[in-house]
Design brief:
This protein has about 240 residues and is mostly beta strands. The chain has helices at about 10-20, 95-100, 180-185, 190-195, and strands at about 5, 30, 35-50, 55-65, 80-85, 100-105, 110-115, 120-125, 135-145, 150-160, 170, 205-210. Helices cover about 10% and strands about 35% of the residues.
């Protein structure tokens, strides 16, 4: 599952990592939640690069996919995640998986360890290596009854790797820069051609840092939500000396 994530890397870093030109400036975002606008990268199928590769374009989309066939979005659940194992079989996602795959740039995500069936301590899960990453995403443009168009998106998830399994059973699918071309190319690559990319990240890819419960509130959007804290039951720090 991925219910919150962060994007604090610079537009320049994202552009260089994922080969996107002319990214407009944007501020760092430390606590992105469903229904908020997110940055997505897509293939511009109308313009091919000189080597035949897919050019990439960036735009904002609502985090929460609205299927094109929906008449009233209020009658369906908020589809901000899609299970990669079944997305190709679900009416809500299968057309997007075939024709509108995208990348969702991120700097990490948040997960909450379950404690007795309740949401417990939050963790900031970030890549060990510096630089932005990208989640596998699906895009859909919803045409509202008034004629307006809404770009929407969902993040694909898979089962967690061994390193994060104790934290949560699901994690977002990460698409590396070397695989971005194939993932985004919906003209020449069908879902079966990219199914091998829908796998958990390697165990050493992420590290999970316990953070303040301030991240629980969507209104808290500053860097303080990522301040590390001591997990419950952690041993006290070693004494630095005696008062007596």
């Amino acid at each position: 599952m991925c219910g919150r994530f962060t994007l604090t890397d610079s537009p320049r870093a994202i552009g260089e990592r994922f080969l996107v030109n002319a990214l407009e400036p944007f501020p760092p975002r430390y606590n992105i939640a469903p229904t908020q606008p997110i940055l997505v990268l897509r293939a511009d199928e109308h313009r091919r690069a000189g080597d035949g590769g897919v050019r990439r374009i960036a735009h904002l989309a609502r985090w929460g996919l609205i299927p094109g066939w929906t008449k009233d979005p209020s009658t369906i659940p908020l589809l901000f995640n899609a299970r990669s194992e079944s997305a190709g079989e679900r009416n809500s996602f299968k057309a997007a998986l075939r024709h509108r795959r995208c990348l969702v740039p991120a700097s990490g995500f948040y997960e909450w360890r379950r404690e007795g069936g309740r949401r417990g301590m939050p963790f900031f899960v970030r890549p060990r290596a510096p630089g932005p990453i990208a989640f596998a995403g699906l895009c859909e443009t919803y045409l509202a009854a008034d004629g307006s168009e809404i770009d929407t998106a969902a993040i694909l998830t898979t089962h967690s790797n061994s390193a994060l399994a104790d934290l949560h059973e699901r994690m977002p699918v990460v698409i590396g820069p070397d695989d971005a071309e194939r993932w985004l190319d919906c003209r020449d690559s069908e879902p079966r051609d990219v199914a091998d990319l829908l796998r958990p990240a390697e165990d050493a890819f992420f590290e999970a840092i316990p953070v303040s419960e301030r991240v629980n509130a969507v209104a808290n959007m500053g860097p303080e939500v990522q301040e590390p804290v001591e997990p419950p039951g952690a041993p006290p720090p070693a004494a630095q000396g005696s008062l007596f």
